[in-house]
Amino acid sequence: NTRIVLASRPHGAPTTGDFRFETDPVPSPAEGQVLLRIRYLSLDPYMRGRMSDAPSYAEPVPVGGTMVGATVGEVIESKAAGLDVGDHVLSYSGWQQYAVEDARGVRKLDADTPLSTALGVLGMPGFTAYAGLEKIGKPRPGETLVVAAATGPVGATVGQIAKARGARAVGIAGGPRKTAALLDEFGFDAAIDHRAPDFAEQLREACPDGIDVYFENVGGAVLRAVLPLLNEFARIPVCGLVAQYNATSAPEGPDRLPGFVNQVLVKSLTVRGFIQREFVDELYPQFLAEMRAWVRDGTVRYREHVVDGLTSAPEAFIGLLEGTNFGKLVVEVGAA
Ligand code: NDP
């Protein structure tokens, strides 16, 4: 069993040297457990936080520990009732080829949608989009919603749900290939490249009626450009700040916090951070029902970026924080 462990805590952007491959015998299941061969490993921005020991809402991966992550695995040996060899399950087995899991800790997957969607549009990222809009963003017909990292599994789903709810969706992404996909593939009403020198100007032009929902995925320059465009009573689900996950110090320049708080006051903004798991008990069944139907009838489309082999995981993850992924980043773990 080959697994990837955290070799050292990164300073700034992670490097391949922060990861190490280790090999040990394939484990055996005890009563009530299954042995899984991992088919797909999800790579997600939050893993950068787990590599750090800065205080957070989740425990860090210990140095020398297996990197964590959601996985789709095939049952190859079962000592658990209700799970048979050949079944596919969603588990949290991390960056490795094989894993033993308690039957209680896995969820059996239906065969009616591609297996990897359980890690993206029909899994945690899709649910994050759904819950953030359902509980906080609440887009209404005719309103304008803005989201960045918009070709990723959270952002692409946010834009399409907003459209399904009758709002106008403006997507922000890095580079012309991604902005083209926002219009052609995901049906956004406008698409803007955050790397364009006149990005803030373009965003203003794309939002002639201001912004009612800003789904915050990135922070940084995008947030700065959004602030002056917010309408009264705008909602900001604060979901992620990927632009600053590799930061080693505070940004240079004048402190923008006073300006931000002033906007919250004068426009009566609601700003609410959330971690998706807060809403799992309340919303997950409703999410799965609605999202499955949307994926089947084409209301919500999804894009995946599949890399081949567990050995590709460190480099692919490093690229995730810089935008080299184009769609939900998934590792097809493979045999060797
Ligand atoms: P993505 O697949 O969208 O990958 C991250 C993307 O961020 C990159 O592809 C890149 O896209 C973009 N990006 C990186 N740096 C910058 C920057 N400086 N400015 C603008 N965009 C940047 O990831 P996900 O869809 O999985 O996650 C999106 C966000 O949601 C993340 O912040 C993540 O942490 C958060 N999240 C939060 C959860 C919660 O419970 N609160 C749960 C799940 C995710 P591009 O090339 O387009 O710039």
From TrEMBL:
Output the Gene Ontology terms for molecular function.
Answer: oxidoreductase activity, acting on the CH-CH group of donors, NAD or NADP as acceptor
Cross-referenced Gene3D superfamilies = Medium-chain alcohol dehydrogenases, catalytic domain, NAD(P)-binding Rossmann-like Domain
What are the alphabetically sorted keywords of the record?
Answer: Oxidoreductase
The Enoyl reductase (ER) domain covers which part of the protein?
Answer: 17-331
Which branch of life, at top level? Bacteria
Pfam families, A to Z: ADH_N_2, ADH_zinc_N
Listed name of the protein:
NADPH:quinone reductase
Q: What is the lineage of its organism?
A: Bacteria, Bacillati, Actinomycetota, Actinomycetes, Mycobacteriales
